[in-house]
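Lab notebook, bench 4. Continuing the backlog of folding jobs that were queued last week. Each job is logged with the same field layout so the records can be merged later without manual cleanup. Today's entry covers ABC-type quaternary amine transporter, a 361-residue chain. Filled in by technician R.K.

JOB TYPE: sequence-to-structure
TARGET: ABC-type quaternary amine transporter
LENGTH: 361
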Amino acid sequence: MITFEQVVKRYPDGTVAVDDLSFEVPEGEILVLVGPSGCGKTTSMRMINRMIEPTSGLIRVDGRDVMATDPAELRRGIGYVIQQIGLFPHRSVADNIGTVPRLLGWQQDRTDERVEELVEVVGLRAELAERYPHQLSGGQRQRVGVARALAADPPVLLMDEPFGAVDPIVRGHLQEEFLRLQAEVRKTIVFVTHDIDEAIVMGDRIAILAEGGVLQQLDTPVKILARPANAFVEEFLGAERELRRLALIPVSEVTADRGPVVRPGTDTDEATRIAAAAGTDWIAIVDGDNTVAGWSYVTDLNGVVGASDARPFAATVLAGDSLRTALDVLVASPNGVAVRVGPSGSYEGLVTRELVTEALR
Ligand SMILES: Nc1ncnc2c1ncn2[C@@H]1O[C@H](COP(=O)(O)OP(=O)(O)OP(=O)(O)O)[C@@H](O)[C@H]1O
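JOB STATUS: finished
OUTPUT FIELD FOLLOWS
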């Protein structure tokens, strides 16, 4: 647990970088500090491990006032990952990852074992351990940075734009991998970024700061996107706020429409009535065992509905997909619906644009 109580940082030249900042990061949570350049994110983070000392206020890590803790001891319990990872260029990947264990005086065997384990945990191939930092890609270097920060298994991690130096696709992979890792290791993390999308993906909660280090809003991504506290936050979230919100809501949150369901063997008149009752000019064809066969315009039917009448749905979603994904596939759907299917292809109903829009309200 990390707590800030009315923390102020005024630099000697009079710049107030952080003003009256209070928050807490419960154990095992990621708090993202986000805001425009110069809003005091890095200053706030560096006060946690005493790289910068607060002018006033109280910062505690696991109940202990950081200013009353020996800095070296404090930092042993705090892993630190930065964008320019600062790997030692003349040391191998393995040596870099083993830095802290060596400082702590671990036996060589134990260090080697831990390094081997971490190389795998952060998704690096084992043979990369013998390379030097300049022989790695940007994404691989970032992974080494994360591995090094985790080496001595500190309960707290500080991450300052840790994935900032790589292209958006690699960044996406690193974010995903890191969240998978975090689900296992459950560190208490303060994560700094200027990128709102990264904040939304990474944060259990997000703190949005404005220039002068003034906290504007602190809440879960879902709540912030649904209800920005003020005009500053609204503007910071940008014009795509609603789309960003949709990305966080799973398809399972909306009750799928039953839809004009017809079994093979139904005659055309009955199928037409079912379509009309649902207000459509087409039917969904679902087999007796509830597997989706496809759909058909009523006018294409002849006699009884058969499997051969079914054309595949152009848009398919799963319960765990986001409404953003649903909206993306809906755009390409000729009958304006996405069919929601279960894991084994069972019919779970229809998702429409109206249902997606309603979910935002
Ligand atoms: N040593 C210093 N002396 C005076 N002012 C400083 C010092 N370090 C930072 N500042 C100022 O404090 C404010 C906050 O800086 P900080 O680096 O914490 O912002 P940030 O939100 O991390 O910015 P960025 O996203 O650009 O890294 C800025 O106005 C900066 O110019």
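OBSERVATION: The chain has a mean pLDDT of 91.
SIGNED: R.K.
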